[in-house]
Hints:
Blueprint: E1 3-6, E2 8-11, E3 14-17, E4 21-24, E5 35-45, E6 50-58, E7 75-86, E8 90-97, H1 99-116, E9 122-123, E10 142-143, E11 149-157, E12 162-164
Parallel strand pairs: 7-11, 8-11
Antiparallel strand pairs: 1-5, 2-3, 4-5, 4-8, 5-6, 6-7, 9-10, 11-12
GO cellular component, one term: chromatin silencing complex
GO biological process, one term: negative regulation of DNA-templated transcription
Protein name: Bromo adjacent homology domain-containing 1 protein
Amino acid sequence: xxxxxxxxxxxxxxxxxxxxxxxxxxxxxxxxxxxxxxxxxxxxxxxxxxxxxxxxxxxxxxxxxxxxxxxxxxxxxxxxxxxxxxxxxxxxxxxxxxxxxxxxxxxxxxxxxxxxxxxxxxxxxxxxxxxxxxxxxxxxxxxxxxxxxxxxxxxxxxxxxxxxxxxxxx
Length: 170
């Protein structure tokens, strides 16, 4: 079976690129928190189905063997655990930021909230990167219903069940 590699894919609601982060539905109920993953590659199979390789992020409560309790509310753990999935499983786009970018995002969000009085529904996140890694849209305050912004500054070995001192696959 041969694969035709793609740089991006257009889903009805938006365009997704390799290295974008996405949410994947985890259950049938709306209360179920989605899984978070990063797109590693996109390809089209001979049958015409578009598939993605997803590198999974773990929530601290999902990771086995971790006894730390000093995690942030929206913190994720990067892993090298990956699977191939259909693009049909993708629910929404999200943003996984490093510690510095996450702090900057929240500081900017708070200052914007003070400036306009109420921040409900606004996002100050850049657009998707193109092939060269440059962002296609400038940073702006664009309307967004519920931005998914997460922090990731630690790695997790899903096989050994332990935190890593540093990770290079965020």
